[in-house]
Amino acid sequence: MQFFSDLIHNRVLIAALAAWTIAQLAKVILYTIVNKEFKFERLVGSGGMPSSHAATVCALMTAAAMQFGAGSFEFAVSFVLAGVVLYDARGVRLETGKQAVTITAIIDHFLKEGTIIEMPEMELKELIGHTPFQVLIGSILGIGIGLWLG
Predict the structure, then answer these.
(1) Which residues neighbour 16 within 8 Å (Cβ) at sequence distance 6 or greater?
(2) In terms of pTM, does the model score above 0.70?
(3) Cβ partners under 8 Å of residue 138, min gap 6
């Protein structure tokens, strides 16, 4: 039972999970307002505004700094993790989404011409990464939640 008690009192973990939850809920609300349709996938999916990846790791990093100090091992690990995740969300995953859009357009063109037949898994996920602005907003959200709950 001590494990579960420790888990629910872990302020660093709570900050990270709260940031992810709030970012995902914001993502659903913004998507629904802009597109005038509710998509359940936005609740758990990646990509979009704000970046829940950025919010999660920035809340983790900030809460670790608040709990253990900027000179701690915990902060160092979370700082490096945040750097990797932010770079990946903005760079690699954004480019992967752009490639998916291009590949889908090429496949659609060939399908219309009758050059290829439809195959399973033809629809590629296009909303994977984040723009710099989405990462910035997610980061600000995460830092705020980390300061609040850390």
Answers:
(1) 56, 57, 59, 60, 63
(2) yes
(3) 23, 50, 51, 52, 53, 54, 55, 58, 130
Residue 138 is predicted with a pLDDT of 94
Residue whose structure tokens are 């629809």 = 123
Residue with tokens 């509710």, as numbered in its chain: 38
Q: Which residue has the tokens 């359940």?
A: 40
Cβ neighbours of residue 108 closer than 8 Å, sequence gap 6 or more: none
Which positions of the chain have pLDDT values less than 50? Answer: none
State the chain's maximal CA–CA distance in angstroms: 64
Task: Please tell me whether residue 71 adopts helix, strand or coil conformation.
Answer: coil
